[in-house]
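Structure representation:
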Amino acid sequence: MSLALVHSRALVGVEAPAVTVEAHLANGLPSLTLVGLPETSVKESKDRVRSALLTSGFDFPARRITLSLAPADLPKDGGRFDLAIALGILAASGQVPVESLEHSECLGELALSGAVRPVQGVLPAALAARAAGRSLIVPLANAEEASLASGLRVYAIEHLLQLVGHLNGQAPLEPYQAQGLLLEVRPYPDLADVQGQAAAKRALLIAAAGSHNLLFTGPPGTGKTLLASRLPGLLPPLNEQEALEVAAIHSVASHAPLDAWPQRPFRHPHHSASGPALVGGGSRPRPGEITLAHQGVLFLDELPEFDRKVLEVLREPMESGEIVIARASDKVRFPARFQLVAAMNPCPCGYLGDPGGRCRCGPEQIQRYRNKLSGPLLDRIDLHLTVAREATVLNAPPAANESSATAAAQVARARQHQLDRQGCANAFLDLNGLREHCRLQDEDRHWLEQACERLGLSLRAAHRILKVARTLADLAGLDALDRQHLAEALHYRPARDNA
């Protein structure tokens, strides 16, 4: 009897748990049995592997073959185990030395010709293989993605024959060298393109500096979408760990990591998006828009047009920074530390308060429109700003507006001060952090308490006012909060936000 073990990786959420493919050959009638909770696509690998081995010139053992994908209680799907299954059969039959597989992991789907096809979710597997101290064998099309895991030895192959020649020592492969495509950073839209709207730009600066959520309210054509698209360019660059998290999520979602790495994502789902489209889901849970916006910006335009039940699912991840999708057999956890920027009109027609008097909406229509947004959701948005219509000037010469680079430098200084002081952005301060880093003079505390009581603001809203005031002090380079910071922060909390 012969036994061989081959290391591979499954894909569960954004994690890549280890899977050991065990191949056992025994005497008896020729057969091939696959166990270990495989789904249909994995069961079909038996036929793909058989054809790939035969067309590549290898012997397919005419014996009783048992293949086990361990652990048995972990669901397996896709064609990512084809390569490991083929190597297990080759090693168990003596066509490949068993010891050559001890320090390697492999992923790849086999064509009937023996060619190796790419699979999704390679980056999480690469990070896990690096942590386990093994090298990784992947299809050539996945090699650039796997090379994001610095320090990992990656071998890229296009055909099964290449891999067997490498393992037998006949034609050793050189570790894959990254081509540097991942360092081509596209420029963000520049804040200098926005004419006027000084108050909205100030709110953007505050939101970027403290990672605060932001809501723009104003009539059509005032630049709400234009302003929101400038926020990613104000945020600090991703560090290596954050960039890998973003790339891993897009890898799992079958989006090219090269399209999002190493920049912060900006997701802009349509208001017709369903709950699963926003938070993720499916029989095989996949990340939704809030996870694809992890470490970046989630922009919801025409906020009241979203289904209210869809918006309510945002409340938990806005607080916890993650989303848990429960299924009967398991729970899948996706990261969702996003920054929400939303935009809405003041009324159904959009022209409430317009000097031209174009609004024809009745009070009941306006109230019904605003009631589409719940108090608890609005309470979790730190900055509320009304964007007024600017004077129409066509083909105006470029104004000396503040550029994204200048604003980003201010944000970087404020954010670094926060990290040095408390280890996180101000928006993520807990109660202990508020007590320690947002201390007030007695008279200022009483003033804020009276203001919140008068406006009917909740305790959560009061805490968020303190966080925004802390950000305003950081932008000014001050350690202590004063009445001026509290007053400006309170300006961004209208009384209607009572939760």
About this structure: The chain has a mean pLDDT of 90. The chain has three domains: 2-179, 191-390+401-412, 429-499. The chain is about 35% helix and 15% strand. Residues 45 and 82 are 6 Å apart (CA to CA).
